């Protein structure tokens, strides 16, 4: 049976702020405890309204028409780019390329920059902490180019082993791909230190997967120092199907296009074509303007909360969750201590398969993820086929943690857990 929740929600100690009420799916189901925001986040009404408003008042194909409605659609799309760029600390707005999300952004870099710059005998470094989206494109590029894929290993508590990274870097290293925050363990990686190591020991470019950092931490591309940064709108309160790649102007301008077609051309001759300027060169076809507008509304929502507050809200939920989960006998938490983590906690429980655990929790109205989290190289190193993962966001509170713990205790009961 689902627990009812009190009317007043907390956000970072501000008892008068009812965040959950901003999210129709959650507001309509008070007994639902959504703890799978690392997979995708819920959407506030302001995002849903912005998308609807675009279609009701400004819908036309951007960049295509000379009539006022098309100009308005183009303006909405460009304003969304500006707002999202500002949120992510990108001064050169045209260096934010809209993509379908992080996966497409990383494939863009591997296919465009990678194919042009990686050759036989070169080396590509990825980490054992990567989501498949930042592992497989590099692995495939290495196979195609007969380059060597090298994997940076982890410390026993799920942090990148920076000595290992240092040892992998050399004059043949072309790319170092790593995430800012791990989706499977929540590890927050020290980007500045990693960039410094790369610069000191190689001429490689740095490719940062920001799918789990843009939603949860203050991020400034211009100060991070990486060459590329990828993100997904749907994990940061925005709609599915929109995200982006941020790069440096000189690098992006020198890269060949990833896809070809409408909008990305300057001149098409019978034999040759020249390319449009940034960002259009990398945005072939009709853009997803409505969802860009929706993501812009999501960013506005996050800006109003303040990313420092978002982070500290998640940290306080995380440390409470960690304390409560550690009290459960037979439960094992993976990854670094709560302070080195974003709002993600991965765990297993003796004898109960994570999928069974997730199914029992679902019966209690608690949504968690179970599986390999698209991080099979990591699971192999943890020596588990799967973990259960709970992840927090702005609409979660202590009642969600209580429901998680109660659900786990219930699973223990069902499985007749006997302490060893
Ligand atoms: N990278 C990380 C760290 C992720 O968590 C995810 C999604 O779970 C991705 C990449 C892929 O993102 P998307 O499916 O939005 O392209």
Compact overview of the structure:
The chain has 420 residues and is an alpha/beta fold. It is built from 14 helices and 15 strands. Helix 2 runs antiparallel to helix 10 (289-305), helix 3 (68-87) runs parallel beside helix 10 (289-305) and helix 4 packs parallel to helix 5.
Task: Describe the model.
With about 425 residues, the chain is of the alpha/beta class. The chain folds into 2 domains: about 10-30 and about 305-415, Aspartate Aminotransferase, domain 1, CATH 3.90.1150; about 50-305, Type I PLP-dependent aspartate aminotransferase-like (Major domain) (Aspartate Aminotransferase, domain 2). It contains 14 helices and 15 strands. The strands form 4 sheets. It has a 7-stranded mixed β-sheet with strand order 2-8-7-6-5-3-4, sandwiched between helices. Helix 4 packs parallel to helix 5 (about 135-145). It is globular and about 75 Å long. Bound molecules: pyridoxal-5'-phosphate (PLP). Pyridoxal-5'-phosphate binds next to helix 4.
Topology readout:
Blueprint: H1 24-27, E1 33-34, H2 45-57, H3 68-87, E2 96-99, H4 102-117, E3 123-127, H5 136-145, E4 148-152, H6 162-168, E5 173-179, H7 191-201, E6 205-209, H8 221-224, E7 228-232, E8 243-247, H9 249-254, E9 265-268, E10 273-275, H10 289-305, H11 307-326, E11 331-334, E12 344-349, H12 354-363, E13 366-367, E14 369-371, H13 376-382, E15 387-391, H14 398-414
Parallel strand pairs: 1-13, 3-4, 3-5, 5-6, 6-7
Antiparallel strand pairs: 2-8, 7-8, 9-10, 11-12, 12-15, 14-15
Helix pairs in contact: 2-10, 3-10, 4-5, 11-14, 12-14
Bound molecules: pyridoxal-5'-phosphate.
Pyridoxal-5'-phosphate is lined by residues 101-103, 131, 133-134, 179, 183, 209, 211-212, 232, 243.
